[in-house]
Each structure stands twice: as structure tokens, then as C-alpha cells.
UniProtKB/TrEMBL annotation:
The keyword Glycoprotein applies. Residues 244-253, 281-291 have a biased composition (Low complexity). InterPro entries: Tetraspanin/Peripherin, Tetraspanin_EC2_sf. The lineage of its organism: Eukaryota, Metazoa, Chordata, Craniata, Vertebrata. It is found in: Endomembrane system. The chain crosses the membrane at residues 12-35, 55-75, 87-111, 197-219. It comes from the Eukaryota. Gene3D superfamilies: Tetraspanin. Its main location: membrane. The keyword Glycoprotein applies. This is Uncharacterized protein. GO terms for cellular component: endomembrane system; plasma membrane.
Length: 291
């Protein structure tokens, strides 16, 4: 069955949404798996004392969130492309849970911004300690990204004595050649100052999820309506067969049509062949006409 109008627009919106959602889910899952099974971070999960650390919790959240997003994408793409009601209903339920969770997490992060800032600072310290112990190149890339994004340098902020000075950004002034902002305090301050922006990002993402949820419900309703509506078949009148004219049949009792005799053009010849109705006398010399 095929949908049209509003259902078709919602179908295309869901396909585009699922493509973006799959890219984000793959990024979260790949980063979480890399932090979980990398040579520099694998040992952290083997210590029971570190199982409740911010690093372990953050990596676990990344993996779980990536898997859930990919599962949602699978149901969404299959339901939208093949117009299957069961897959769309499952996609709608999962999407509703994600949207509600996104809004709740954004509000809780804003309300507990001090605690969340400290947890993020602890996460950075864990990455810093792993790089200092193993000098992992992949970890150096992660620290470089954090340092350039927040414009900070290590846990001390002094590039001359900092272990991770190779990953620190270029100084913006002469004073920053000696002292730069340290990353744990910068993370805490940034999160406290921009807690409203962070909550806005969470709420905006939740709004996009609700838009996709509305499109999924609309598409499901259109598919159900298309399945329940009667199917009309246009009947065309049959084309009449060409009439074959048959020659007239003669009855057995009807006499055959008369055969015209030959016209007499030469009287002397015709005299030798008398017509019917003339009788020749016995002598053959005279003709008598019979009336």
C-alpha cells in the first residue's frame, strides 16, 4: 500500500531523521567501545574500586546510548520504508521513551549543575591520568580536542611543567605562555555558566524527537486508514466482437433460381434448336405453336 499527502511528507522526514540519528548513534557507540577496549583504558574496568568512577559511568552511558539509538533507527527505517505498522508502533514507543528521557536529563543536569560539573572534571582527570601513565596516542587526540575546545591546559595550567603540554592549545597572549587555565576548573566554570545552554541543547534535542514522534504517529494512522479503506475497481464495458455476415441459406423445399437461357442472336441457328413450348410435327417440315 502507498500513502500520499501528509503521510508521504512524514515518511520522508522520518527517513532523514533516522539517517542523522544513525550517524550520532554510531559515533557514540564507536567512542564508547574505543574507550572500553582500548589498550590504555581497558585496565580501568578490571579494578573494582574504579567501577563507580565518572569515567566508567560515562563510557557505559555512551555504549548503551549508542546501542539504543541504533535499535531505534532500525525499527524506524524498516517501518517507514516498508510501511509496516508493527515496526512503526515499536519505533514510536522507543522514540517516546527517548524524548522523555532527553527532557528529564536536561532538567536534572540544569538543577544539579554543580555535581555534574564535578563529575565531568573527574572524567577529565581520569583521561589525563591514563595518558600520563601510558602515553597512548589515541588518548592524546582526545585530550587535544578537549584542550582546544575549552582552551585549557592540563590539571595545573602551566605549560612548562605540564605533562600533556604537547596537547595544549597555542597561547593567545604573552601571559598564557606561563600560565593557562587548568581544565578541571574550566570545565566546572563553563558548565555552571552555560548550564542554561546545556539544558537548551537537551530540550532542543527532545523537541526534535517529539517532531519525529508526531510524524511516526501520523504515518501509522495513514497506513491504517489506507489498509481499511475499500479498494475500487473500474469496470469497462466489454468490446463487442465483430459481426461476420453469413450468406443466406436456402431451404431444401425452395426451388432453385431460374437459369436464364442464351439469347438467340442468329435465327437460322435457333430454328434448329427449338425453344421449349414449340412442338415439331411428325413430318418435321412445319411448326405449330401451342397455346
Amino acid at each position: 500500500m502507498a500513502v500520499d499527502g501528509c503521510g508521504l511528507v512524514c515518511k520522508y522526514i522520518l527517513v532523514i531523521f533516522n539517517i542523522i540519528f544513525s550517524v550520532v548513534g554510531l559515533a557514540f557507540l564507536g567512542l564508547g567501545l574505543w574507550l572500553r577496549f582500548s589498550d590504555g583504558t581497558r585496565e580501568i574496568f578490571n579494578f573494582e574500586a574504579l567501577n563507580s568512577s565518572a569515567f566508567v559511568i560515562g563510557v557505559t552511558v555512551l555504549i548503551v546510548l549508542g546501542v539504543v539509538m541504533l535499535v531505534v533507527v532500525v525499527f524506524g527505517d524498516y517501518g517507514a520504508c516498508s510501511e509496516k505498522k508493527c515496526a512503526l508502533e515499536t519505533f514510536t514507543a522507543l522514540l517516546a521513551l527517548l524524548a522523555v528521557a532527553e527532557v528529564v536529563v536536561g532538567v536534572l543536569a540544569y538543577a544539579s549543575r554543580d555535581m555534574v560539573g564535578h563529575k565531568l572534571g573527574e572524567f577529565y582527570v581520569s583521561l589525563y591520568s591514563l595518558y600520563a601513565a601510558n602515553n597512548d596516542p589515541a588518548m592524546a587526540i582526545t585530550l587535544t580536542f578537549i584542550h582546544n575546545t575549552l582552551h585549557c591546559c592540563g590539571v595545573t595550567g602551566i605549560p612548562l611543567v605540564e605533562i600533556v603540554k604537547k596537547t595544549c592549545p597555542n597561547p593567545d597572549s604573552l601571559m598564557e605562555n606561563l600560565v593557562m587555565p587548568n581544565c578541571p576548573n574550566t570545565i566546572l566554570n563553563v558548565f555552571e555558566r552555560r548550564a542554561g545552554l546545556v539544558m537548551g541543547i537537551f530540550l532542543g534535542t527532545g523537541a526534535l524527537l517529539f517532531v519525529a514522534l508526531i510524524c511516526s504517529i501520523t504515518l501509522n494512522a495513514k497506513i491504517r486508514q489506507s489498509a481499511s479503506s475499500p479498494q475500487y475497481i473500474i469496470l469497462t464495458p466489454p468490446t463487442p466482437a465483430p459481426t461476420v455476415l453469413q450468406p443466406p441459406q436456402q431451404g431444401f423445399d425452395s426451388p432453385p433460381p431460374p437459369i436464364p437461357g442464351p439469347s438467340c442472336l442468329h435465327p437460322p441457328v435457333c430454328s434448329k434448336h427449338p425453344r421449349p413450348g414449340l412442338r415439331t410435327s411428325s413430318s418435321g417440315s412445319s411448326f405449330s405453336k401451342l397455346f
